């Protein structure tokens, strides 16, 4: 029987201001044998997907205290990231300091949040800086995520990819963000994709595996959906949209396709798979739309950092700026809210 997605919209769910929390507390996805029937049956209705996400901004909104609560929750799900060619040890240390104290103390006090724990979901860096970040975050409970497998193109030899994963795990990375070989998707070689990701999962050991699909390179939503399903069957703990380096990165239609695959996988296996949009999410307004879509499609559990992460660098500064506006009534300059 063919499984078609985007047949109808689920009923809107009421927004509940969630409290910060996190950590990997859920049973890990053990993966399963590759089921080609699951892949072959996937169909995507592009126009329905586009209509679904186009309706979101006008249909869902939060204001004032509710918006502040949603933005505080978003902070706990940010993988605070620096992936630049000019990264330095000192920049990574500053980023880690911001991850531990993402909002100014005076703003938290005026929000009634003083004394409560608040930090980002992770800090994401190249392998070169894993040990630096681990040391800077010691005792904070914030995991280090390392991009790996020849990020961002993923075109280095397979054995080197595995060695890079293993090296980052030895240095203390608790999460590994790998990139898949896009050619496997574009040529429909699903068995090769499955085998590749299965090897990555084995190399990760206890570290959580986040598979970056580089959706902007995959051309169609059907390819995105099929790649999502194959990666989950291979044992991915998270599926992630983008490296942030493609011409097109995270979008709401791509997100919808991936969330529907997460839902199908959970229905069939019982495992909850995390989702991480990355690239181009730079404003508080952007992140709210992703949160709303997560809540409507997958439920309240997917607003927590063990199932939802946002790959971002400049987003945190805009969230802090919006929180300052909430408590003061004035917008400050963007450069008054440094990230790292």
TrEMBL record:
Residues 1-30 are annotated as: Disordered. Its EC number is 4.1.2.4. One of its GO terms (molecular function) is deoxyribose-phosphate aldolase activity. Pathway: Carbohydrate degradation; 2-deoxy-D-ribose 1-phosphate degradation; D-glyceraldehyde 3-phosphate and acetaldehyde from 2-deoxy-alpha-D-ribose 1-phosphate: step 2/2. It catalyses: 2-deoxy-D-ribose 5-phosphate = D-glyceraldehyde 3-phosphate + acetaldehyde. CDD domains: DeoC (cd00959). Signal peptide: none annotated. It comes from the Bacteria. It is an enzyme of class 4 (lyase). One of its GO terms (biological process) is carbohydrate catabolic process. Coiled coil: none annotated. It holds the Pfam family DeoC. The keyword Lyase applies. GO terms for cellular component: cytoplasm. The keyword Coiled coil does not apply. Residues 1-11 have a biased composition (Polar residues). Keywords: Lyase, Schiff base. Belongs to the DeoC/FbaB aldolase family. DeoC type 2 subfamily. NCBIfam families: deoC. This is Deoxyribose-phosphate aldolase. The lineage of its organism: Bacteria, Pseudomonadati, Pseudomonadota, Alphaproteobacteria, Hyphomicrobiales.
């Amino acid at each position: 029987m063919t499984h078609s997605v985007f047949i109808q919209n689920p009923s809107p769910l009421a927004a509940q201001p969630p409290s910060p929390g996190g950590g990997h507390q859920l049973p890990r996805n053990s993966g399963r044998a590759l089921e080609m029937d699951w892949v072959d049956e996937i169909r995507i209705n592009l126009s329905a997907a586009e209509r679904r996400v186009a309706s979101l901004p006008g249909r869902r909104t939060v204001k004032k205290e509710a918006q502040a609560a949603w933005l505080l929750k978003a902070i706990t799900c940010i993988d605070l990231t620096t992936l630049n060619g000019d990264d330095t040890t000192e920049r990574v240390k500053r980023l880690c300091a911001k991850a531990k104290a993402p909002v100014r103390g005076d703003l938290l006090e005026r929000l009634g949040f003083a004394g409560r724990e608040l930090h980002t979901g992770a800090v994401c860096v190249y392998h070169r800086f894993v040990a630096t970040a681990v040391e800077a975050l010691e005792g904070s409970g914030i995991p280090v995520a390392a991009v790996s497998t020849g990020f961002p193109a993923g075109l280095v030899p397979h054995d080197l990819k595995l060695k890079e994963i293993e090296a980052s795990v030895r240095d203390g990375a608790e999460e590994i963000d790998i990139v898949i070989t896009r050619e496997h998707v574009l040529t429909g070689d699903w068995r090769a994709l499955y085998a590749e990701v299965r090897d990555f999962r084995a190399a990760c050991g206890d570290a959580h595996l986040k598979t970056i699909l580089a959706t902007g390179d995959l051309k169609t939503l059907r390819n995105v959906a099929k790649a999502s399903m194959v990666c989950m069957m291979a044992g991915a703990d998270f599926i992630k949209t983008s490296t942030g380096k493609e011409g097109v990165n995270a979008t709401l239609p791509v997100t919808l396709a991936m969330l529907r695959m997460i839902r199908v996988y959970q229905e069939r296996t019982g495992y909850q798979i995390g989702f991480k949009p990355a690239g181009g999410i730079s404003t508080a307004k952007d992140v709210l739309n992703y949160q709303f879509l997560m809540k409507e499609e997958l439920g309240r559990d997917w607003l927590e950092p063990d199932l939802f992460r946002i790959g971002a660098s400049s987003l945190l500064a805009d969230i802090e700026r919006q929180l300052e506006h909430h408590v003061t009534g004035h917008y400050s300059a963007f450069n008054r809210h440094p990230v790292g």
